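assembly run, all chains below
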Amino acid sequence: MRISLRAAALALTAGLFSPVGAAAEVSTAAPDALVRDLTTEVLDAIRADKAIAGGDVSRVQKLVDEKVLPYVDFQKMTQLAVGRGWRSATAEQRTALTREFHTLLVRTYSGALSQVKDHKVQMKPFRAQPNETDVVVRTNVVPSRGEPIQLDYRLEKQEAGWKIYDVNVVGVWLVENYKAQFAGEINAGGVEGLIKSLTERNRQLSEQKKA
Amino acid sequence: MQTRLLPLRAMPSHLRQISLRAVVVWGLAGLAGCVTVPPNAGQDPRDPWEKFNRNVFAFNDGFDAAILRPAAELWAKLPEGMRNCFSNAFANLRGPSTAINNTLQGKPAEGLSDLGRFAINTTVGIVGCFDVASRLGLEMHREDFGQTLGVWGFGPGPYLVLPIFGASDVRDAVGILGVEPFLDLNFYIDYPAIEYTIFALRIVNERAELLPADRLVREAALDRYTFIRDGYLQRRRSLIYDGNPPREPDENEPEGDEPKAPAPTTPEAGGAPTGSTDVKPSGGEE
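ok done. output:
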């Protein structure tokens, strides 16, 4: 691997959890404008927060929980990652899957997000037909030194506005990267098995954090 | 100097010994067979050698825990400026390779720019220690022979975990083991002691750069092997298209429906041994 994976890890978090916005006004914007405003805003917020710079990961989690959710469709994200198993899952199982996957992503990546310092967002040219409802917005996150980090978003137009449902960091789509793992868990222990694995991992992580 | 033009013959005997040893290590690693492998291993069409790969992966993990990671953690304690200097200098050794590969991929302008980078950083940047070229606006491209093969239309072939080097595929392994060594300046250093030292330090340096990502992967992955494999394959595909690959056909499954195979709609496909991820509902099918 010849990329700076540290930078990638930072970018991943910045990408996934960057959408921080000033309510509905933003969500009706064009998808590229939405991504630009939200990423810039969240990077600013992190930079401004001394507690985050001091390593207070819970602050990042709180930031994410409060501000990100309106702009990310975690359920669609989970559904795509679970793939075929989703059809056989009950409503409760679907809720549990979405909740646990969401928790896992927030927990694992907020640590890295807290280390974002002077990164800037650079938009790449965006072309989309006006009637398109599923688009990719491409960006680079540029650290003060070192190579730019590719960071792309997949968005879907929904009634409430554009929603992010997948993130690409240095060429790796997040949803795609969980598909085979989830399929493996489902193969071994069914949907219930996957939920159990996710829950167990989240429990370990929260204990680790306390320790 | 004549032999320099014939890298294959010029390959010093000690390097041949190393590659021989690598093959032996690989064989042992693969045969170790003490790793828990999921029952459906090898059913993913991209990874038919999964069982073998998982063994090499486990071997690499052992090597990493015992030697590589401790060394990398030590290395990471160096002052930042010093580490940057080493990182830049090591990257610079790959400059000619990047230039050649860019040219082979039909991007002569990038190739020329890489050559310029190499010239500037080697001289003004003092054997690559300072990345002067980047500050002058000559951005770094990273190209290797595996990517060149991809651009030429070769598929990745089966996924392949290499000892020590880690994630790869057949196409990239051809580049990493068969071609890249000869394009790398390190290879042409005539003093074995220096050559080996640089070789080792580069691996340690790369490992040090991976320390934060490694921690993240350990937390985020349900199955580290699969997480790294799929990340690697996606990343390499993206690189071949210079960051903008066409969307894969089966990614488009809006309601979690059958991605491609239109056939098996029967709820019980007889245990689904075909690598299908369909599973009998553990409660409440429509």
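DSSP finds nine helices and five strands in chain A.

Chain A touches chain B through 56 residues (CB under 8 Å).

not gonna interpret more than that til we talk
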